[in-house]
Amino acid sequence: MKSRKILNDPVYGFITIPSELIFTIIDHPYFQRLRRIKQLGLTDFVYPGALHTRFHHAIGAMHLMSITLDNLRNKGNEISDEEYEAALIAILLHDIGHGPFSHALEFSLLKSIHHESLSLLVIDELNQQLHGQLDLALRIFKNQYERKFFHQLVSSQLDIDRLDYLQRDCFFTGVSEGTIGADRIIKMMAIKNDQLVVEEKGLYSIENFLSARRLMYWQVYLHKTTVSAEKMLINLIGRAKDLVQSGHYIKGTDEFMHFLGNDFTLEDFKNSKDLIQVFLELDDYDIWGGIKLWKKDTDYVLRNISSMFLKRNLYKINLNSEEFSKEELQELWSKTQSRLGVPDEDMKYFFSYGAISNNAYVAKERIHILTKKGEIIDVAQAADLPNIKAMSKIVKKHYACRAKNLTL
User: Fold this and answer.
1) Beta strand pairing status for 189-192 and 13-16?
2) Is 106 exposed, middle or buried (0-12, 13-18, 19+ CB in 10 A)?
3) 3-state secondary structure of 42
C-alpha cells in the first residue's frame, strides 16, 4: 500500500498520506505541477527564504484538516470515513487552479478569471478521470453538501487554508509577528447548529490570529517591494501580450505563447477540456524562461524590464495613506519620462499607480464564538478589546511606482 507513505514537512514534521485515493491525487501531474508554483510569488525578492510552493501548502492544509476532523470527532461529532476523506481532498485541491505566480498574474495572463473558478474545473476534470470518486469532495468545495461546516473548514474567515498559510509563510519568511496558535484554535473548534464555532475560551487565540493576519498582509503580502515587483511583472506580461497579439514574434514555451496570444474567458475554459490541459502545463518556469529569453529581444520595453527583473533592479515605489493628486501623479510621470526618454504610449509599462487594501476581518463573513451559556455570537461582539472592530475596516494605501532607468 502506498497510502502509508510519509512526507517530512518543515513546519509540522512527518505527515502520513491517509488513503490510496489521496496518494493517487498527490501523484497526479495536475497536483505535482504545484511544486513549480511558489506560494508567495515574488516575495523572495524581499524575504529570501520565501521559496516554498503551493505543493507544500496543500499538503500542510490536508494535514491540519485531518487534525481538525479528529478533534471534532473526539467532541462527539459524527463524521463518516467518506466525509473525512472528502474533506481532506477538498482542502488538498483548493488551490489546484492557481496559475504561474499565483495572485500576481491572476488578472493579466488570464482576464478576470479567479483561481477558485479554475480549481473547480480542474477538480471536476480529475473527478471524471477518477470515475466519480471526488463527487463528495466537489459538493463540499462548492458548498452544496448539506453539512455546511465542512465547506466552512475549506473556505471561510477561519478556514484550514488560512491556518496553514499563515504558519507556513511566517516560517519561511522569518516574520515572527505572523505567529498564530493554530493548535489551540483547532482544539477550540466545535460544531453548533451545523456551523463551525470556536469555544469562548479560544477567543484570545482568534484575536491573535486576526491580528497576525493583518500584520502579515502589510509586512509580507503587501510589502511595498513585493507590490513594485508584481507591477513590473504585470506590465511585462502586458507588453508581451500586446506584442504577440500585434504580430511581433517573441520566444516562449508553446503553452505560454498560447495564453499570450489570446484573451480567454471562463466560458472558454468551461467549453474546452483542451484549454484546461494547456493551462495545466503552465507554471513559474514558463514565465522565468520567457524573461531570460526576452532580455535579448528586439523590443526595448520587453528587453529592459526582463533585464531589470534578472538584476533585481525593481521599480521605485511611493506609498501614501492619502490618494495621490493628479498634479502629483503628473509630476512623477513627467520626471520618469524625462529620465527614461520613452514615448507617451510606452510609459504605461514603466509607470503604475493604484491602491492596495487590507481588512483582516470581514464582518459579513463572521467568525462565530460559542459562549459558555451556549449562545453563538460574532467574534467582534465577544471580544473585550476594540481591535477586532477596527480590523473590520478596510485600510487602503495608494502607490505610484516607476522605472529608475533604462540600460538596454
Assistant:
1) unpaired
2) buried
3) coil
Give the list of residues 6+ apart from residue 28 with CB closer than 8 angstroms, or none.
126
Cα-flanking dihedrals φ and ψ of residue 157, to 5°? -75, -10
For 290-322, give one letter per residue: b (16+ CB within 10 A) or e. Answer: bbeebbebebebbbbbbbbbeeeebbebeeeee
317 within 8 A of 224, measured Cβ to Cβ: yes
Provide the residue type at 399 as one letter. Answer: Y
Can you tell me the distance from the alpha carbon of 272 to that of 270, in angstroms, rounded to the nearest whole number?
Answer: 6
What does the pLDDT look like over 148-162, one tens digit per residue?
999 999 999 899 999
Cell, residue 34: 504545484
* Residue 178 grid coordinates: 505572523
Question: CB of 105 within 8 A of CB of 256?
Answer: no
Q: Is 370 helix (H, G, I), strand (E, B) or coil?
A: strand
Q: At 368, list the grid cell.
A: 462565530
- Contact by Cβ (8 Å): 104, 222: no
498560447: which residue's cell? 258
CA angle 29, 35, 39 (to 5 degrees): 135
Beta bridge partners of 358: 395
Instruction: Report pLDDT digits (tens) over 325-353.
Output: 999 999 999 999 999 999 999 999 999 99
Cβ distance 370 to 262 under 8 Å?
Answer: no
| Residue 195 DSSP SS3 | strand
Radius of gyration of the chain (CA): 23
